[in-house]
Structure formats: structure tokens, C-alpha cells
Write a structure and sequence with these properties.
- With 136 residues, the protein is mainly α.
- It folds into two domains: 46 residues; 50 residues, no CATH class.
- 71% of the residues lie in helices and 11% in strands.
- The protein contains six helices and two strands; from the N terminus they run ααααββαα.
- Strands 1-2 form a two-stranded antiparallel sheet.
- The longest helix has 48 residues.
- 1% of the residues are buried.
Length: 136
């Protein structure tokens, strides 16, 4: 079936009929408004709860950054001066894995896999950020 042109007056009447059909009755409007406002209130409550959780997580992360940087700043001195049982605890805190290898020429090397958050503190990205900050 082909669309045929209709007169503007007929089109206007069809459009008016559409508007009449989609107009909300006062009771329907009130019911819909109640439902929508309730949904908005629930969304606002959930969002506030999520933001509070995120804020608490960020506060904890900020505290962990300070602790990790304090430990990193004094790592060498602390380890050197610590008794054996504290050294062991220090290793468990900082490292996921320590691997000591011996080369063919007898020289020894150590590879460290850091635990969170020290993998960030000692990682290449952090060194790059520090280098970039010094240049600017």
C-alpha cells in the first residue's frame, strides 16, 4: 500500500487525535508521579549509600598510602636494625615472592614480587610519575 498525500487539515486532525490519546488523566498522572518519585528516592538513597562507601574506601586508601610510603621511606634502615623475627614479618608485608639466583660467574641476584600496595610504590609507573613531576 502506497502512502498518499493528505491535506494539512486531515494531518492536523490525526495529530490532535494522537495528543488526545496520549494525554494522561489526572488520576493516572498522580499514580505515575508517585511511582516515579518513589523510584527516584530509592535511586537517590542507593547512590548516597554508594558514595558513602566510596568515600570511606578513599579515606582508607589515603591512610594506606601514608603508611606504605612511611614504610618505603625507611625500609632499608628498618630492615637493617630489626631482629630476625621482625625482618621475617617485614618480608611477609612487602613481598609476595623473593627469588635469589646465582649466575654462572657466581654472582647472586634477587628478584622481588611486591604485595599491594608496594607493587605500586616500587613499580615502574611510580618511578615514571616521579620523573615526570620533577621535570615539570
Amino acid at each position: 500500500m502506497r502512502n498518499r498525500s493528505i491535506q494539512i487539515e486531515q494531518a492536523e486532525n490525526l495529530i490532535q487525535d494522537l495528543y488526545d490519546r496520549i494525554s494522561l488523566a489526572p488520576d493516572s498522572r498522580r499514580e505515575l508521579e508517585t511511582v516515579l518519585r518513589h523510584g527516584l528516592k530509592q535511586l537517590r538513597t542507593a547512590t548516597t549509600r554508594s558514595l558513602n562507601t566510596i568515600n570511606a574506601d578513599l579515606t582508607e586508601a589515603d591512610e594506606l598510602i601514608t603508611i606504605a610510603l612511611d614504610i618505603a621511606q625507611h625500609a632499608g634502615t628498618t630492615y637493617r636494625q630489626a631482629p630476625e623475627h621482625i625482618r621475617r614479618m617485614f618480608n611477609q608485608l612487602l613481598f609476595e615472592k623473593l627469588l635469589v639466583t646465582t649466575d654462572n660467574d657466581g654472582s647472586r641476584q634477587i628478584d622481588a614480587t611486591y604485595k599491594a600496595p608496594f607493587e605500586i610504590v616500587y613499580g615502574p609507573d611510580s618511578r615514571a610519575l616521579v620523573h615526570e613531576a620533577r621535570r615539570s
